[in-house]
């Protein structure tokens, strides 16, 4: 095992397998991202249905913001993913200059 994994890691594996690992157990960690998704009953066109998509996007931003506030989290990157005809996926994101939980941050 030492030849494959190296001495330190193989020693840790052996101790963990025998229940003698004394590392602190981490029960909860802060999530790397939070998201909301919506699936539409009919296909919407990214340009022709921009108003409808914008309304849903705004609603989702508010919901994610409420989740962040409730859990006392903030974020710096806002992303959007659209799956269009043929299951082609288009993604875009923007990184804000400061972490926030404001649903309209970055729109001004």
Structure in words:
The chain is an alpha+beta fold and 108 residues long. The chain has a domain at 36-101. 33% of the residues lie in helices and 21% in strands. It has 3 helices and 2 strands; from the N terminus they run αααββ. The radius of gyration is 22 Å and the shape is elongated.
Which segments are poorly predicted (pLDDT under 50) over 5 or more consecutive residues?
none
Q: Specify the number of helices.
A: 3
The proportion of strand residues reads 15-25%
Indicate the percent of residues in helices.
Answer: 25-40%
The main sheet orders its strands as 1-2
Average pLDDT level: 87
Oligomeric composition of the shown chains: single chain
Structural class: alpha+beta
Characterize the overall form: elongated
Major sheet size, sense and barrel closure = 2 strands, antiparallel
Number of distinct beta strands: 2
Order of helices and strands: HHHEE
Terminus-to-terminus distance? 57 Å
As a whole number of angstroms, the C-alpha radius of gyration is: 22 Å
Short descriptors:
single chain; 108 residues; alpha+beta; two-stranded antiparallel ribbon; 3 helices; 2 strands; 33% helix
